Structures are given as structure tokens and as C-alpha cells.
Amino acid sequence: MKVGLFFGSFNPIHQGHLIIAQAVLNQTEVDQIWFVVSPQNPHKKSKSLLHEFDRLDLVERAISDNYAFKSSDIEFKLPRPSYTIDTLVHLAERHPSMEFKLILGGDNLEQFKSWKNYNQILDYYGLYVYPRGEDPASDLWEHKNVQRIEAPVLHISATYIRSCIQQGQSIKYLVPDEVESLIAVKKFYL
């Protein structure tokens, strides 16, 4: 089985994430997309980061109607901060019959070289890269294990969604209805 791994804080998950995941599913040979909720991203620090189990719950609600989408809390059980290579190695050992590939935004491709053991990720796993506006020049586009994905460029960000919530504005259409509902009930991001 081939699995595309979509790592993120998903703070909160939104329609942009889901559209990208569907584009990867449509354009590649992956059987499933796993949304890997990161408890702590070593490249991001945020005071507004919702508790990891709440973010996982939001992801599970967002993807519940798509049999090809799964949530993963694997990084909750690993040392922190979470490094993608460590998670990939752990998943490969735990699921030897599965082939994993990382899903990455084009805007992060050049920064990808600063990731722990990025060459190992490229050589043993590979990348599906989706557009995030104008993709920066990078020699990594030429790597045999980097595949460009065509997807709509949506300027939806979790930061914008959190700002809307804090200002009492609607987030309808930015997030799935189930996510909007849970955020309202639990008063997340206020």
C-alpha cells in the first residue's frame, strides 16, 4: 500500500488541506493520505497552538467522510521536537508493507534542505510537492523522487482562521462544517 503523509500542526485543519490531499490522491498512486498531527514543529513556535488531542479530533472530524483519509497521532508518542525523518523511520519499521511519501508545499522546498537528514527523506521516501503561490527556484525540483502536484493555490491559512474566530467572524466555508461546529462548541481559539 502506498501512503502519502501530510504532516502539519493543523491548527485548525481547513479546506485548503483537504483540497491538497485530494489532489495528491487524484494525481498519484497513493492509496491513502495520512494526516500526521505534529505536536511540536521544530520550525514553528506558537502560543496559539491548540492541544494536540483537540487538533487530532478536529482532523478526524474533517476527514470522517473520506475512506482514503486517515489521521495519525504517531508523533504524540515520539520524542519532541518531532523530526520528520524519525517519524518516517518509525512508520516504515511499524508498517513494513507500506510505502510512504511526504507531501510538502512548494514554498518549503528550499527550506527542506535544513531538515534533519533531508537527503535520506529524498532517497528513501520522496516528496509530492504542491504549489503555494510562486514556487521558489530549487535544484530539488530535478530530484528523481520529487513529484510536482497540480493543485489550486488557495490563500487559506490557519492563522487567518484563528484571527476570524478571535474577531467574532464566521469561518464558514474555510473549514468543514464539523470542524466549525466543534470549534464553536469548545470555544477554541478565543
From TrEMBL:
CDD domains: NMNAT
Pfam families (alphabetical): CTP_transf_like
InterPro entries reported in the protein's UniProt record: Cyt_trans-like (IPR004821), NadD/NMNAT (IPR005248), Rossmann-like_a/b/a_fold (IPR014729)
Signal peptide positions on this chain: none
Superkingdom as given in the UniProt entry: Bacteria
Single GO molecular function: nicotinate-nucleotide adenylyltransferase activity
Keywords annotated in UniProt: ATP-binding, NAD, Nucleotide-binding, Nucleotidyltransferase, Pyridine nucleotide biosynthesis, Transferase
Catalysis performed (reactions): nicotinate beta-D-ribonucleotide + ATP + H(+) = deamido-NAD(+) + diphosphate
This protein's pathway: Cofactor biosynthesis; NAD(+) biosynthesis; deamido-NAD(+) from nicotinate D-ribonucleotide: step 1/1
Residue intervals of the Cytidyltransferase-like domain: 5-162
SUPFAM superfamilies the UniProt entry points to: Nucleotidylyl transferase
EC number: 2.7.7.18
HAMAP family attached to this UniProt entry: NaMN_adenylyltr
Protein function: Catalyzes the reversible adenylation of nicotinate mononucleotide (NaMN) to nicotinic acid adenine dinucleotide (NaAD).
Family that this chain belongs to: Belongs to the NadD family.
Protein name, entry field: Probable nicotinate-nucleotide adenylyltransferase
Biological source species: Aquirufa novilacunae
